[in-house]
User: Which sequence fits this backbone?
């Protein structure tokens, strides 16, 4: 393998979900692709490095500060949805049901991986709640239903409740289209505990 291709394979293999085989396929695809397409990809990557930063309000990725969601006066300032990553913001907005504001933690608490509160944007969230105390009535914790997500949710609830702000957690349980016989016990227990009248 030529040196530039080996280097490209190594760099591509660092991406999440990309193993060496996939990285090799991608590298050879790029070698065969029209040079204009490869240059467009390279320019897009450089744009991300040079233009994208974190919003000073919600810590979401943005080109403009504050981001478009924080600058949108139509969003409800009384609700802040706390998520683990910028991709969670995109997923929640795509559902079209939530019109409040966001706060991005950039990870979840994970002592086994050495990720503590100081590694996340928790201090920024608390400072924001102090600043916006008169506006914010509810903080919705929308972290995954994993051990790390649950630990993060409980930790945040403990910190936020003394500020006289309602802390809620997104519901979880059997997904739409899911079947009970294929669901694990924890998911079924959660679905039963979170049942609502019909």
Assistant:
């Amino acid at each position: 393998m030529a040196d530039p291709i080996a280097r490209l394979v190594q760099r591509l293999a660092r991406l999440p979900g990309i193993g060496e085989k996939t990285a090799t396929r991608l590298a050879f695809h790029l070698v065969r692709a029209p040079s204009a397409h490869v240059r467009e990809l390279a320019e897009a990557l450089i744009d991300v490095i040079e233009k994208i930063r974190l919003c000073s309000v919600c810590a979401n990725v943005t080109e403009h500060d504050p981001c478009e969601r924080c600058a949108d006066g139509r969003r409800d300032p009384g609700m802040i949805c706390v998520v683990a990553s910028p991709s969670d913001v995109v997923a929640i907005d795509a559902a079209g049901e939530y019109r409040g504001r966001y706060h991005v933690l950039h990870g979840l608490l994970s002592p086994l991986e050495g990720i503590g509160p100081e590694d996340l944007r928790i201090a920024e969230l608390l400072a924001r709640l102090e600043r916006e105390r008169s506006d914010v009535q509810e903080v919705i914790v929308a972290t995954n239903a994993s051990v790390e997500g649950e630990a993060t949710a409980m930790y945040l609830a403990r910190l936020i409740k003394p500020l006289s702000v309602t802390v809620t957690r997104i519901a979880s349980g059997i997904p739409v289209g899911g079947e009970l016989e294929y669901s694990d016990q924890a998911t079924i227990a959660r679905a039963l505990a979170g049942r609502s009248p019909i």
User: Anything to note?
Assistant: The two ends are 62 Å apart (CA to CA). The first helix runs from residue 3 to 13.
